[in-house]
Design a protein that fits this description.
8 strands; Beta-Lactamase; Arc Repressor Mutant, subunit A; 10 helices; 2 domains; 6-stranded antiparallel β-sheet; two-stranded antiparallel sheet; alpha+beta; about 230 residues
């Protein structure tokens, strides 16, 4: 769930950008993804294309434009720099998919991800917005969120406040078939220099490989990776 700025046209334009970022799409699919009327979706996408925030691929579908890369080149994000140094090793150790999530309101956003070179994967694309109601990454981020956010999410969550207390006590979370059937995961909190939790690092994969208690196997590695990320911050 993305934040709403209250500026209607801006929120709609950002929604178009996110929809196209999922995968290239034409007008009909863009309308389906955004819920926007056909004329509105076309007008916004065409305007974003003029500003080079969107472009067209060989099939005429909208895709992310070169201006996004140009703008991002000037962004310095210590968390992503730390992830580039730590996540490859975590993937190598576990042989599973690894992700890094930030919390945005009552959602979590995947800001970095790596997939194993072969075998079944739990693919979470960078930029994906997932709810805080299920999954080990959600538990970690919600466990350290403010009380108001916790109370707004917990009524619809697949876990309780007692589970969040346990996450804070042991320093990691696990899940099995919560976010998606057949998928298990383990996550641990990443902190900034002041000790505040700013992200959750996660490993996920098929339950058949990770088991229904994946923390028994991978929690120590997740905590070590989270500590390595924290040190780099």
């Amino acid at each position: 769930m993305r934040q709403n700025s209250g500026i209607g046209v801006l929120d709609k334009a950002v929604g178009v950008l996110h929809a196209v970022a999922e995968s290239p799409c034409g007008l009909a699919e863009l309308c389906e993804r955004t819920g926007l009327p056909r004329a509105t979706a076309h007008r916004l996408a065409a305007g974003l294309e003029i500003h080079r925030l969107l472009a067209r691929d060989g099939d005429g579908r909208w895709c992310p434009g070169p201006a996004l890369v140009e703008l991002s080149a000037n962004v310095s994000d210590p968390l992503l720099g730390a992830a580039a140094a730590v996540l490859p090793r975590l993937r190598e150790i576990t042989g599973e998919s690894v992700q890094l999530y930030r919390r945005e309101g009552t959602a979590r956003v995947c800001v970095a991800a790596l997939e194993p070179p072969a075998g079944l994967r739990d693919t979470v694309p960078v930029g994906a917005h997932l709810p805080l109601t299920a999954g080990s990454g959600a538990k970690v981020l919600l466990a350290y969120a403010d009380h108001r956010t916790q109370q707004s999410v917990l009524p619809n969550a697949k876990f309780t406040d007692r589970v969040l207390a346990e996450v804070r006590r042991r320093g990691w979370a696990q899940s099995a078939a919560e976010r998606e059937s057949g998928v298990a995961s383990v996550a641990a909190p990443v902190r900034d220099h002041a000790g505040s939790v700013v992200a959750a690092v996660s490993v996920s994969g098929p339950i058949d490989r990770m088991g229904r208690r994946p923390g028994e196997r991978w929690a120590a590695d997740l905590v070590a990776a989270a500590d390595a990320l924290t040190r780099r911050l």
